[in-house]
């Protein structure tokens, strides 16, 4: 039983922390202002399908817990940037190579959907490139990552393409 629990937590962590091999030169959406804090409407606690909790406060988040230890946490600042476009929030975090990774989020009533764009094969690479008009996805020299530079409309289009975007739904509990 514990083995399954660790496996599902590992999958959730993978989705939230480095779910994607898609990176950006700058936090996205590029031309949207950086939010100084998480908006009131998304502050709260959410539970995923495995029973793990995501807690969002005004300036930080915490996700997952086993044996009283939080798996992921972050505080808004220079290396964790929050932006908004339409009804999507974009949590951008800087990785060890200096690129930005992104997790999108959308709140619908009491359900928070997380979005993560990922390229796992040549077909998905082709799909990503069909969404982008200026500059195609380029492979980085390290870690099998792909750099993209989407416009606002393109990033929204990418988030809505289920062939390349993973989603996880969390239910608000507080």
Question: How would you sum up this structure, described in words?
Answer:
A hairpin with a 5-residue loop joins strand 3 (44-47) and strand 4 (53-56). The protein contains 3 helices and 13 strands. Residues 1-17 have low confidence and may be disordered. The chain has a 10-stranded antiparallel beta sheet, with helices on both faces. The protein is 20% helix and 39% strand. It has one domain (2-172). The protein is globular, with a radius of gyration of 16 Å. By secondary structure, the chain is of the alpha+beta class. The relative contact order is 0.21. The longest helix is centred in the N-terminal third of the chain and has 17 residues, at 2-18.
Structure summary, number of beta strands: 13
Strand order across the largest sheet = 2-7-8-9-10-13-3-4-5-6
Helix content: 10-25%
**How many structural domains does the protein architecture include?**
1
Shape: globular
Termini distance?
A: 28 Å
Share of residues in strands: 35-45%
Radius of gyration: 16 Å
Features of the shown structure:
about 170 residues; alpha+beta; ten-stranded antiparallel sheet; about 20% helix; globular
Give the SSE layout:
Elements: H1 2-18, E1 22-23, E2 34-35, E3 44-47, E4 53-56, E5 60-66, E6 69-75, E7 80-85, E8 88-94, E9 100-108, E10 111-117, H2 122-131, E11 138-139, E12 146-147, H3 152-159, E13 165-172
Short description:
This protein is of the alpha+beta class and 174 residues long. It has 3 helices and 13 strands. Helices cover 20% and strands 39% of the residues.
């Amino acid at each position: 039983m514990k083995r399954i629990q660790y496996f599902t937590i590992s999958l959730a962590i993978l989705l939230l922390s480095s779910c994607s091999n898609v990176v950006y030169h700058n936090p996205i959406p590029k031309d949207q202002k950086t939010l100084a804090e998480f908006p009131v409407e998304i502050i709260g606690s959410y539970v995923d399908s495995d029973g793990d909790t995501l807690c969002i406060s005004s300036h930080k988040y915490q996700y997952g817990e086993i044996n009283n230890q939080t798996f992921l946490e972050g505080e808004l600042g220079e290396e964790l940037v929050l932006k908004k476009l339409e009804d999507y929030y974009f949590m951008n975090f800087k990785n060890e190579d200096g690129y930005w990774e992104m997790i999108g989020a959308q709140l619908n009533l009491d359900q928070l959907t997380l979005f993560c764009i990922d390229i796992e094969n040549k077909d998905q690479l082709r799909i990503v490139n069909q969404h982008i008009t200026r500059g195609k996805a380029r492979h980085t020299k390290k870690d099998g990552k792909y750099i993209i530079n989407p416009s606002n409309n393109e990033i929204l289009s990418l988030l809505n393409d289920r062939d390349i975007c993973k989603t996880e739904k969390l239910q608000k509990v507080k």
